[in-house]
From TrEMBL:
Belongs to the BCAP29/BCAP31 family. Residues 139-208 form a coiled coil. It comes from Erythroxylum novogranatense. InterPro entries: BAP29/BAP31. It is a multi-pass membrane protein. The chain crosses the membrane at residues 6-22, 43-64, 84-104. Keywords: Apoptosis, Coiled coil, Endoplasmic reticulum, ER-Golgi transport, Membrane, Protein transport, Transmembrane, Transmembrane helix, Transport. May play a role in anterograde transport of membrane proteins from the endoplasmic reticulum to the Golgi. Its main location: endoplasmic reticulum. This is Endoplasmic reticulum transmembrane protein. GO terms for biological process: endoplasmic reticulum to Golgi vesicle-mediated transport; intracellular protein transport; protein localization to endoplasmic reticulum exit site. The keyword Transmembrane helix applies.
Amino acid sequence: MIQLLFTVIFSEMAFILVLIFKNPFRKLVIMGMERVKRGQGPIVVKTVGGTVFIVLMSSVYSMVKIQKRWIEEGAVNPTDQILMAKHLLEATLLGSFLFLGLMIDRMHHYIRELQIRRKSMEAVKKQNRAFEDGKVEEIKAFEEEMTSLRSKLKQLEADLEEKRKEVNASEANAVALKKQSEGFLLEYNRLLGENQNLRSQLKALDSSLSRSSSKKNT
């Protein structure tokens, strides 16, 4: 039994070293422990641990009995010394077995928590990166839209300036046409006055001719 306990303890120490340091077998050990903790695995582990704990208590009880016998007899028996050493070694190995098993279980638990937290942190980082990338893309889209709007604004300003020039030219043409029409109106009035004068002169000539012809006839 002592050889078996030594083998188990050294195996547990090897498991602890595998869990502590990074190596190719670490993932395999963690996956194996996760499978052990599923289904009936925890029941088997608890049964083994309870059995080992009972054997440990039995060894401790045997050591206490031997100690009481020494006190009652007042002498030390060589056989009891051998039994005492054997029970002490067994109790030490059994206690080490339970302690190392508990250490392995806690280390696996903390490693799993650490992996879960790292995965959650990576997921948060990915979300932050995606959010930042979305913000960058949105900012780029806004900048492109602002650039297009600025170009449209410049085009509209250029069109407005061209239309303004055309309006100014049209106003200048209208003013020139107005002045020209005023000149035509003045010329028309002058010609109309001359026409009236000519008509009055013609009437005067007609009347004088008619008078002269009437005189000749008489």
